[in-house]
Amino acid sequence: MIRKVAILLLLLAIGYVGWVAFLNLPGGDGGPPMAVAHKGAPAPAASAPPAAAAQGALVIPVAGVRADQIGDTFTDARGEGRAHDAIDIMAPRGTPVIAAAAGTVEKLFDSELGGRTIYIRRPGGQWIDYYAHLDGYAPGLAEGKRVAQGEMIGTVGSTGDASPEAPHLHYAINAMAPGEGWWQGTPVNPYPLLVAGR
Ligand SMILES: [Zn+2]
Fold it and tell me: Which residues contact residue 6 at a Cβ distance below 8 angstroms, ignoring those fewer than 6 apart?
C-alpha cells in the first residue's frame, strides 16, 4: 500500500515537471508558445495552449477580414500527398495583405506553387510568417526591410497554383530551429492563434 502511494506521488511529480517544461517552451518575442516539433517529426495540428490565446499576438493578415470569416483549412489535403499546412483567407484581388506580426523581410520569392511570396522572420528568429499567391508587393518592400505588425506588405491575388476565380491569401507560420533557412521550418496551425480572444 505504501509502495503504491509512493509510486503515485512519483508519477505526479514527473507529470508536474513535464508540464512546467512544456509551459517554458520557446515563445518569446511575441511568438506563439507552442510545443515545437523538430524537423522530421509529424507536424502538430494541436490547438494553441491558453497562454497563446492570452497573448492575442497576431493580426488577421488580410485587411477588413474578421475572425468569423476565416476557417481552419490547416489540415486540408492537397495534391500528391502534401498537407496544406497553412490557412487560406479568401478576399477580392487587390485587398491589402498586412503583416500578422512584426519582423524582417527575409525573402521575396516567386515559386511555381506559391506564386509571389513573402517570408518574414519575427524578432528572435524563432518564427517565420509566410504569405503566398500575392498579386503584388507593397511599394518599397524589399529583403532586409523591417515591417511593423499590421503594415501593408502586398495585395491578395492568385499567383502560383491558386485558382484565378478564387483569389486568396495562403498564410503559414513556421517554427524555426536554430540555423534553419527561410525554406525550412516546421508548420504550426495559424488558425487558433488568429481567432484567439476574438
Ligand atoms: Zn493555401
Answer: none
Report how far ligand 1's centroid is from the alpha carbon of 159 (Å). Answer: 12
CA of 96 to the centre of ligand 1 (A): 17
Gap from CA of 81 to ligand 1 centroid (Å): 14
Amino acid at site 116:
R
Question: What does the alpha-carbon distance between residue 43 and residue 145 come to, in Å, rounded to a whole number?
Answer: 30
For position 9, what pLDDT does the model report?
A: 53
Rounded to whole angstroms, how far apart are CA atoms 155 and 172? 16
Q: What is the pLDDT of residue 36?
A: 42
Q: How remote is the CA of residue 86 from the centroid of ligand 1, in Å?
A: 6
Residue 170 Cα to ligand 1 midpoint, Å, equals 4
- For residue 51, CA distances in Å to 57, 183, 187 come to 11, 28, 19
pTM of the model: 0.71
Nearest to 83 by CA among 164, 188, 162: 188
CA of 161 to the centre of ligand 1 (A): 9
Distance CA 95, CA 80 (A): 30
Q: Span 90-100, mean pLDDT? A: 98
- Domain segments of the chain as ranges: 2-195
- CATH fold, domain 2-195, is Glucose Permease (Domain IIA) (2.70.70)
Q: Comparing 7-21, 40-54, 67-81, 154-168, which segment has the lowest mean pLDDT? A: 40-54
